[in-house]
From TrEMBL:
SUPFAM superfamilies: Anticodon-binding domain of a subclass of class I aminoacyl-tRNA synthetases (SSF47323), Arginyl-tRNA synthetase (ArgRS), N-terminal 'additional' domain (SSF55190), Nucleotidylyl transferase (SSF52374). This is Arginine--tRNA ligase. Keywords: Aminoacyl-tRNA synthetase, ATP-binding, Cytoplasm, Ligase, Nucleotide-binding, Protein biosynthesis. A motif ('HIGH' region) lies at residues 122-132.
């Protein structure tokens, strides 16, 4: 039963066309506590229209309302407070959840439209640090949320496997590296060389010239440069995939920057044909002054391509291959200006999906308030953080439930889930200062708290045995259950909102809210009492378990049945 529509309809009748249904619906509010009703209509904005005091308007409307669908309607000052019929509402909500199961909240708004998601995208020959976590888990959750809303996401790990950093890395390897050391510990050795390059080139700026020469050789197909690049790429991918497996993240394509090398000439030709390329100090640029943006540098004076050249080729390829409904780039907020330039160039080129290109920015992840940087050598390895988190989760579980059968597997689900949830509960544009111990707490707004709430629900169902909750009337009369039932009913709207805003925190915050209302209900009510209402109470527990598990799944977090 959609009470928002019901409230809107009875108000529309009472107002006799003075406000449209959409205008009424937009004004409806959710009271902070259930004792003030389940939905409220403020009458302030009607004062000018009706030339009456808001309190009088509320009184007059109350007398005209058809209240048969509600438990009661109260006038409190300028507000009309609607109290839902708890029996009918709980039955309708629980039956809907139990019938749909994991599909509850699913909609087909996306009509199967393709949505490539540029996400994760670590640079080859550098380890995945905590700085890579956000793009990876935000992109992965957005993909799950899009699927729930009827879209077809295409997760594209656009690897940073090309660019001037390879000139620097090859230079460093030629100067200070050896094959045997790299084979023993590829990523850490390569990072060591890369960091040393940036320290040495402060006093030896000529190293930058050597690096540029090596990158140009790589672009021109020099065998030695290409062999080193291929070796660095393969070693990096092996290490990346270990981390992705731990996080439970899979990709549909790994088309890195190098994939687009043979597509750059066409980009330049299109820009030339449309008279968009302008020479500036020997380089080739696109003038974007009509967009109030700086020129986009397409080719350097030596003819070498830039990041944006390859991104234009990428966008063109995605446009032709996927005909995207949206084209998403889950990339840090510091790149906002760059994506405005990229979108403007694509619009000038006439790329059909240019208007659908959307930068999905996110804030920094810091440790002790300091930004992470490979160049400066300040790196906290993501693999090490996950390992430590799993270890600490295992210790916590061992203390709480030493007889748990599959402790190691559950420790992994909780440890990894804590890191992922800890990121996604924050609005993505906010900066995060990472503290591992805070993420792993079993109380408070954490992943383990939500997972534990799900496990508690499953434990209750196991203790109850084989009670058929689907055959129950499922009218839960217990007032302590009311907030939980209303929260369950909110889930489909949260799924839509998370999709509209491309904001996983909507789901994470919802999961915390549902867990809190359920734990409050559990603390105040004897669920397993043998009486006529037992099946209805268990139906509520089953619904909570189902929706918590699905909420966690949308975030890329697993939900153990025991903890």
């Amino acid at each position: 039963m959609d009470y928002k529509q019901t409230v809107t309809a009875v108000l529309a009748t009472a107002l006799d066309g003075q406000l449209t249904a959409d205008e009424i619906s937009a004004k409806l509010e959710r009271p902070k506590t259930s004792d003030k009703g389940d939905m409220a209509f403020p009458t302030f904005t009607l004062a000018k229209l009706l030339h009456k005091a808001p309190q009088q308007i509320a009184q007059d409307l109350a007398e005209k309302l058809d209240t048969t669908a509600f438990e009661k309607v109260e006038v409190v000052g300028p507000y009309l407070n609607f109290f839902f019929d708890k029996g009918a509402y709980s039955e309708a909500t629980l039956n809907t959840v139990l019938t749909a199961g994991a599909s509850y909240g699913q909609n087909e708004d996306g009509n199967g439209g393709n949505v490539p998601i540029d996400m994760s995208s670590p640079n080859i020959a550098k380890p995945m640090s905590m700085g890579h976590l956000r793009s990876t888990v935000i992109g992965n959750s957005i993909a799950e949320i899009l699927t729930k809303n009827g879209y077809h996401p295409i997760k594209d790990n656009h690897l940073g496997d090309w660019g001037t950093q390879f000139g620097k890395l090859i230079t460093a390897y030629k100067l200070w590296g050896n094959e045997e050391d790299v084979k023993k510990d590829p990523i850490n050795k390569l990072v060591e060389y890369y960091v040393r390059f940036h320290k040495e080139d402060v006093d030896k700026p000529e190293l930058d010239d050597v690096a540029r020469e090596w990158f140009k050789k790589l672009e021109d197909g020099d065998p030695e440069a290409h062999h080193l690049w291929e070796w660095f790429r393969k070693a990096s991918l092996q290490e990346f995939n270990d981390v992705y497996e731990e996080l439970g993240v899979k990709f549909d394509t790994y088309n890195g920057e190098a994939f687009y090398n043979d597509k750059l000439a066409e980009v330049v030709q299109i820009l030339k044909d449309k008279n968009l390329l302008v020479e500036s100090q020997g380089a080739q640029v696109v003038d974007l002054s009509k967009y109030d943006l700086n020129p986009a540098l397409i080719l350097k004076s030596d003819g070498a391509s830039l990041y944006i050249t390859r991104d234009i080729a990428t966008a063109l390829y995605r446009d032709r291959t996927y005909q995207p409904a949206k084209n998403l780039y889950v990339v840090g907020s510091e790149q906002t200006y760059y994506f405005k330039q990229l979108k403007a160039v694509l619009k000038e080129m006439g790329v059909p999906s240019a208007d659908d290109l959307q930068h999905v920015p996110f804030g920094l992840i810091t440790v002790d308030g300091k930004k992470l940087s490979t160049r400066s050598g300040r790196i906290i390895l993501l693999a090490k953080v996950l390992e430590e988190s799993i270890k600490l989760a295992g210790e916590e579980i061992n203390e709480k439930n030493p007889d748990l059968a599959n402790k190691q597997e559950v420790a992994k689900q909780v440890g990894v889930g804590a890191i992922v949830f800890g990121d996604l509960k924050n609005e993505r544009t906010n900066n995060i200062d990472f503290v591992l111990a805070d993420q792993l707490k079993f109380e408070g707004e954490t992943g383990p708290y939500v997972q534990y709430s799900h496990a508690r629900a499953e434990s209750i169902l196991r203790k109850a045995g084989n009670v058929d909750v689907t055959a129950a009337g499922n009218q839960v009369a217990d007032p302590e259950a009311w907030d939980t039932i209303k929260t369950l009913a909110d889930f489909p709207a949260m799924v839509k909102m998370a999709c509209d805003e491309l904001e996983p925190s909507v789901i994470a915050k919802y999961a915390i809210r549902l867990a809190k209302t359920f734990n409050k209900y559990y603390a105040h009510s004897k669920i397993l009492t043998e009486d006529a209402d037992l099946p209805a109470r268990l139906a509520l527990v089953k619904a909570v378990s189902t929706v918590l598990k699905e909420s966690l799944r949308l975030l890329g977090v697993q939900a153990p049945d025991e903890m």
